[in-house]
Every structure is written in structure tokens, then in C-alpha cells.
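Reading a protein record of the kind used here takes little practice once its layout is understood. An example of such a record is reproduced below.
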Amino acid sequence: MAINRATFHISNDHLEEMVLDKVDLPSEFSVHQMVREGLLDNQTMAEQGFPGNTEERFREAGRITGFLREFGPTTNMQAQDGFNFLGATVAHLFDHPDKVLAWMHDIFIKDFEQNVGERVGEDHQLVSVKQLEIDGFYDEAVALKVLQGGPSGLVSSTVIDFRLGRLLGVAFVATVGDHERLELATELGIALEKRMVGVVLGS
């Protein structure tokens, strides 16, 4: 497919153009502000991921680098149950489309499933992981609802991974309490996919 071949012209410098800006976000996030953005190299991914992950593991999995942009609440927002406090998109670059697929199943899904019950970060525990049915994307996509518990209660994340040639797009929504946000995460993911396609075809 032409779009897949075109992703071989993509370099690290294109990734920042692919992640969503505030104007691209669903209206749910219209009052949020950008709280974090930046390059996600393999070392950073390993440090922020599950215990035991290494830069070498991710490099061997074909991942080159990525770029993240995250939108979160302003200080006057009330974080009550059901509040979607975070929306983020990430574009990852791999050395081959097959490696993207392997990452989605063998690293993204498996790592979450194998760490249920374990501590994540300083003071959170991974309570449960549920795979969700997902469609509407150009190529293969997978989705998880992840529930974590910590000192301030439960937080759930709905995360979508989708493939576009040798690119991996990630959209996620974090919510206060135990809630699934597949519809909102899909809206975010499809907007990301459109933006990625535009950059790929424009390159």
C-alpha cells in the first residue's frame, strides 16, 4: 500500500508534527492546557515503563523514537469521579511495519497484562487490564482499559495503539475513577491518524 511505503520517508523530525495540538482535540478537552511534550527516546520509555524494561529491549523491538504531547487540567478544575483529566497522543517510529504489530501485541498488551497486581510508579498499583474491541482505523488497532489504584483513589486509562506503516500512533485518555472512555479515545485516535497521514503524504 502506498501509504505504508510513504512512511519509509518519515524521519524523527516529522514526529512532532504528527501529535495533536489543542485545536485538534475533541471538545471534551477544550479547557485543558498542554502539560507535557517532548521526544520519547528508548531510554526515557524504559525509565517510565514497567520495571525491568531496558533501552536495549525497545531498540531490539525495532523502535527508533517517538514524540508525546499531553493535555491536562488547569488548576481550577475539580477532579471529581468521571472527570477526564488527561488526553494525550504519541507518534512512534519503527524500523519496519511488522515490528509495529509485534510491539502492539507482545509489548503493549503483554506488559500490561503481566503486571496486574504489581506496583507502577512510586505509589500506584495496577489493579486490572481489559482488552477492548476497536475499529474505525486504517490498519490494525488494539485498545486497553487500565485501572490503577493509589493514595487518592482509582484512576482509569483508555489507551489505543494503531499502526500506520512503520509508525505507531497512540491515543489515551485518563479518567478519575473506574470508567471506560473508548469512544473519546477513538475520537482522539482517529484525529491523530488523520494528522499522521497528512504528514506522511506531505513528506
